[in-house]
Amino acid sequence: MNKYIFITGGVCSSLGKGVAASSLGALLEGRGLNVRMVKCDPYINVDAGTMSPYQHGEVYVTDDGAETDLDLGNYARFTSGTLCRANSITTGQVYESVIRKEREGRYLGRCVQIIPHITDEIKNRILAVAKEDPDTDVVIVEIGGTVGDYESVPFLEAARQLIHESGKTNAISIHLTLIPEVAGGELKTKPTQHSVKAMQEMGIQPDMLICRAPVMLDEDTCRKISLFTNVGYDEVFTSYDIGTTIYEIPLVFFEQKLDQIVLKKLGVESRHADLDQWYSMMDKFAKRAGKVRIGIVGKYMELHDAYKSVYEALFHAGIENGVEVELAKIDSARLEGADDLDSIMGNDGGGVDGVLVPGGFGQRGINGMIKASAWARTNKVPYFGICLGMQIMVIDWGRNILGWKDADSTEFNQDTKHPVISLLEDQVDVKNYGGTMRLGKWDAVAEQDSKLERAYKQTNIHERHRHRYEFSNKYRKEMQESGLRLSGFTPDRSLVEAVEWPDHPWGLGVQFHPEFKSKPTAASPLFREFIAAAKKDRS
Ligand code: GLN
Known about the structure:
By secondary structure, this protein is an alpha/beta fold. The chain contains 19 helices and 23 strands.
């Protein structure tokens, strides 16, 4: 029998439910359990692929090409279980399949309703995750939104039914709430009491509480919370503001014995906890000395979540290189009108030790990115181009080395005489925007003795993709002859996967997204090498 842990949130959003769920996943993995993580998103979008990064943050891509909520990125950074399409459940998917079945007549004339048809569909999708991997021990299901939201009701009802049907030791509920501090420094438990009541109204008695609070809650406060919520005193935990990094949270929970209580409640015998990788990562984190400053030149700069995995991967690479990575977020549109980039990026300006141009879509700010690429290239400042950032390197090369002033991607200029980046052949007839890009894990092969090969320490690379446009093959010869190194290809060599600048300390662009596979305990090789080059540049 698989075990289920439902994680819900109350009081308000942004309490770190995803990090709490992931941290618990990390602890249970540390105890040798095989953990699968699932996110239920109550929005009606079928997936996150069509949502603007401005509104919803980054789209996280899985190996099998699902475009999911960024919480799956958290799961991937904390845990090691497979994440695929099945691990992200949205209201849109649930309704889409129920309505399809209804049209196919599969409900045999019955009236199709939220209960049981929508809730059954949710339950089946949750149960399917464990069925996919027979070795699964525990499935952690995070329910998005806040208890009390209209839209999460079917998910909470499905959770209630699953808990009821699985029996007490097979499924538990952990509720995350906020303990705010009011003027005078007093901590308030009332919002938590109300939030647990809202859960009880949904028919779910939380088994454990994780309280977000500025400080570790004292015994009296925990006893009071326990008394008002029917949750045992030992089952009230604090997720306090740690001031270090979210990656310490598994250890914060471990010290409070959160995982032991979970195992006890689920009837799993206690076993040795191996958290060495987390302790040694935190040790490296504490020993970081010095800084490197990385200029991120992109278009979605206002919202930190828009480039979440990129920022996290830079942070991981900093830990591995023993330096703090400081981010200089530069809106590329701002560079467009600037005559002199030195004043923004150079020593007389922000003084960046490396430039990273991340992925993106649409024309705005493109010329600023091209300027940033040319600046890093000519000033020999390490440059890392990811997806769009690689395409920018190619456009810069076309315009500034080959002298084709109109060199462009057909994404931005369909009439250019030098379409150095153009639509992938199989994209030409695509009309539907959801889930139709070149998505997910694809193999790439690095050229011998390239920076790409040196970073991965092998020629075979498996990274995730999300793009419609590509390096245009008809320009391969001229680009190569003028010195641009094409350093990675698909195994059949039909697509260019990476380019490198010659005579440059570290200028590399990749068509894939290495940020999605980076972990605090194992940084992505390309991010690691980029930060190593930036560190060298600074010294
Ligand atoms: N807009 C570009 C394309 O579709 C780059 C995509 C990306 O950076 N993810 O190819």
